[in-house]
Amino acid sequence: MPDKDHEINRIAWNEMVEVHFKHPGYRVKEFLDGQQMLQSIEIEEVGDVEGKSLLHLFCQFGLDTLSWARQGATVTGVDISDKSIEYANLLAEKVGIRATFIRSDVVDLIGKIDAAFDIVFQSYGTLCWISDLESWARVVAHYLKPGGLFYIVDLHPILSVVLEDEVSYFKRGPYRYKDSPDYCDKEYRIKNELVEWEHKLSDIINVLIEAGLTVEKVNEFDKTVDPGNEGWIKREGYYYPPDGPSRYPLMFSIRVRKPAQP
Ligand SMILES: C[S@@+](CC[C@H](N)C(=O)[O-])C[C@H]1O[C@@H](n2cnc3c(N)ncnc32)[C@H](O)[C@@H]1O
Q1: Angle between the N-to-C axes of helices 133-143 and 201-210, in degrees from 0 to 180, rounded to the nearest 10
Q2: How far is the CA of 262 from the centre of ligand 1 (A)?
Q3: 262 inside domain
Q4: Whose CA is nearest to atom 27 of ligand 1?
Q5: Are 186 and 226 contacting, i.e. CB atoms less than 8 angstroms apart?
Q6: Can you give the pLDDT at residue 165?
Q7: Phi/psi at 85 (nearest 5 deg)?
């Protein structure tokens, strides 16, 4: 049975993807001109992907998936939104990169891909769409080869508490939003309902450990990829507060590995 709230999000994401694909913030034109879409944090922390198989969860229209392919990986992208997958295939064809894109809820993925990967990757705006972290971690562990690497980088969960009065760090949700502004095109109001969850950092780490994975590195950053803060200073692809170093973490990353011997 598909998760009812995830289905609500699928419909909203089909709407949002149309907005994002055309919006200059997503830099589709620059991608088509050959530019790299990945940020320096993930490039450094994931390391060399040449010749490796990479599964990208929550891939939207595949800009990062295809950028990993440009770095030498053999790539598969997964997203719940039909429109995302349509555009991802279109982009792959336009730039002549061989990639596989699969439309699926991440938590329902097992059985839809018959392979294991050297790397499972996800970035920027992902776990807030997942009601059940245990199912997500099981999927991650399932699709890693023995010795394989899982890597996530994202906005820090403390940010929702800082930015939204109704959110508590310790209340998972669901939080339901109607008529909310799109994060990329601030002028656009999302017509469909969105359902989000808040997962604290310790929960994210603990479900990965419980799924049998070994934590290699956890990082918290005082810079963000989010351009949505007025007056923030952009330096080398990241945004910093205008009035000195941030007092709280803005992003986090986690690197875990599946043991080589089960
Ligand atoms: C903010 S984007 C993150 C991707 C990437 N950082 C980007 O900006 O292109 C979130 C993506 O997650 C997808 N998504 C939301 N819920 C999902 C789910 N349950 N399973 C798979 N994908 C999902 C959405 O369709 C959307 O493309």
Answers
A1: 50
A2: 30
A3: no
A4: 60
A5: no
A6: 84
A7: -70, -40
Q: Quickly list DSSP for 27-95.
A: -HHHHHTT---S-HHHHHHH---TT-EEEEES-TTSHHHHHHHHTT-EEEEEES-HHHHHHHHHHHHHH
Domain at 119, CATH number: 3.40.50.150
The reported pLDDT for the residue numbered 129 is: 98
Provide the token pair at 213.
Answer: 């994975």
Give the mutation target among 80, 85, 185, 196 for probing the ligand 1 site: most ligand atoms within 8 A of CB.
80
For the chain, 262 residues long, the average pLDDT of each consecutive 10-residue run is 94 98 96 96 98 98 98 98 98 98 98 98 98 97 98 96 90 95 94 97 98 98 91 95 94 98 70
Q: Of the candidates 17, 169, 166, 20, which has an alpha carbon nearest to the alpha carbon of residue 103?
A: 17
Please give the Cα distance from 87 to 69 (Å, whole number). Answer: 16
3-state secondary structure of 205: helix
Beta-bridge partner residues of 75: 54, 99
Cβ of 183 less than 6 Å from ligand 1: no
Name the E strands within the chain.
Answer: 53-57, 74-79, 99-103, 117-123, 144-155, 175-177, 194-196, 214-221, 233-235, 238-240, 251-257
Q: Enter the pTM of the model.
A: 0.97
Per-residue model confidence (pLDDT) at position 11: 98
pLDDT of residue 262: 64
Q: Tell me the CA–centroid distance for residue 24 and ligand 1, in Å.
A: 18
Pocket lining: 66 vs ligand 1, CB cutoff 6 Å? no
In angstroms, rounded to a whole number, what is the distance separating the alpha carbons of residues 95 and 93?
A: 6
Range of the domain at 137: 4-257
Cβ–Cβ contacts within 10 Å for residue 167, how many? 16
* Total domains in the fold of the chain: 1
